Amino acid sequence: MRYLADDLLEGREAGTRGYDLAAAYVASQFRQIGLRPAGTDGGYFQPVPLQAHWVVRDGARLIVRPQGGRVTQLTLGQDYVVQSSPVRAASALAAAAVFAGYGIDAPVFKHDDYAGLDVKGKVVVLLAGYPSTFPSEEGAHYGSGREKARTAAEKGAIGVVTIYTQRYESVYPWDRAVAALDSMSMAWVAPDGTPFVPSAALEVAAVMSPTAGSLLFEGAPRSYQQVRDEAAKGAPKGFPLAVSLDMAQASRHERRSSVNVVGRLEGSDPALRSEHVVMLGHLDHEGIGPAVAGDRIYNGAMDNAAGIAGLLEAARALASQPAAPRRSILFLAVTAEEKGLLGSEFFARFPTEPADSLVAAVNLDMPILRYDFTDVIAFGAQHSSLQGIAETALAGMKLSLTPDPMPEQAIFTRSDHYRFVQQGVPSIFLSTGWNTPAGTGEGGKVFQQFLAGDYHQPSDDLSKPIDFVAGARFARANVEILKAIADGERKPTWNEGDFFGNLYGRGSR
């Protein structure tokens, strides 16, 4: 942790010198531990080509043209923000607009915002988020901008404009969207040289401010405020709008490269060693950014030097045992998590071992090593047999497995293991629990204080107290869970009827 979170590594942003130093360090640790290289070309690295992209402000345009009303040209950074494109240097459209509710088509919930609407060749106007009646994790899946854009493109739309609900405004205020306008975005690049975008058919995507959004509903059957009021109670029905939109975006592109680091511990059972359990954590962080109290380096001590340290010590412990676990284990440090889970998605789609050999994924991301704990959180465990496996494994350490304490955050869909879920692999995300030996819930308070004060800030650094004894216990807990999965008679399975198992499980594809 002290090396990975040192100022020398300049925040470990993907595609930078600091990240490359971190990757070389992890590879050297894998070599010392005795893990076999499991990257490409006989080494520990899997190259991940990346496309960095930024908004070019001068090329952005959003004009609202009501039928017979006053034409309004909106101001970038005040009334709207446009999203840069990894595949188009510039694009424009002029098309009618259709309000499509939340823009969700979810057959499992018998919910289709596009029912009865013709959006082909048009711009869809979508509410941010998802209906309050949806469960949090399933709602987070359907409510993600990526999933909504993919659905809109499949329905034939050529542009998307997202507007605010009251609930979303309280979670993600407009000024945060404006502050991110000039930030770098990234996409991974496929072997054919094309940046990956699930919604590549969309020409332009933008977000309108809560104030400007009312312009879209001039002459419509219902006003923006009425739609927002309906969204606070349920899911508003869509309808054609009485406006057309003239939209444009321009993007600056830059190719960059980074690496995933992969080591393999060979299994001991001749019949099972061809199967792989994946333990992963993201190696990158936010790099160098805006100064806070004079500090511009976002070190990422907890996020995620702590997780990588736990991964390395789990590998060291398992490699030093007289007999390896029955199944093989891949230890994977991934890049560009902070840019949208890119390194993990690249590996999950182009694994360095056969895809059907990956039986489970265990993710370590941001364990808060500032207090002793008596439980472990396994986000997503309830979706598969991994819950029972983890509970049994932890019992020997007198640690309990507790349910997600923040279900409203839908953390299961927000870290690297989710890219394995999307390829049908049962997965969990391990973190330190909130219960302490004193039984006062102090861990939860410290966890929330970290999220409020240090998360993605320069203050997540080595100046804060770190409980290395707790870190060692967390690493040992990881070892016990890994061993239980790798030694099990049966590989992990999705629970019968589970949403994610049905959506992504290999039996359904």
Question: Quick recap of the structure?
Answer:
The protein has 2 domains: 271 residues, Zn peptidases (Aminopeptidase); 198 residues, Glucose Oxidase, domain 1, CATH 3.50.30.30.
Question: Can you characterise this structure?
Answer:
This protein is an alpha/beta fold. The protein has two domains: 271 residues, Aminopeptidase (3-Layer(aba) Sandwich); 198 residues, Glucose Oxidase, domain 1 (3-Layer(bba) Sandwich). It is built from 13 helices and 21 strands. The strands form three sheets. It has a 17-stranded mixed sheet that branches. Helix 1 runs parallel beside helix 7 and helix 9 packs across helix 12. It starts with 16 loop residues before the first helix and ends in a 5-residue tail after the last helix. The model has no long low-confidence stretch (mean pLDDT 96).
